Amino acid sequence: MEIDIKFDPAEVFDDISQYLEGLELSGGWEITYIQSGDITKQRYDLDNNLIYSAETLISKSPEDIAEVILDLDSRKKWDFYLEKYEKLQSWGKNLQLIHIEQKYKWPMSNRDFVLVQGISHEPGEKILIGWKSIDYENKPPTNSCVRGIISYSGFIITKVSETISHVTYIEKSDPAGSIPTSLIKILQRRTLNTIISLKEFMK
Question: What domains lie within the chain, and their CATH numbers?
Answer without folding.
Answer: 9-201 (3.30.530.20)
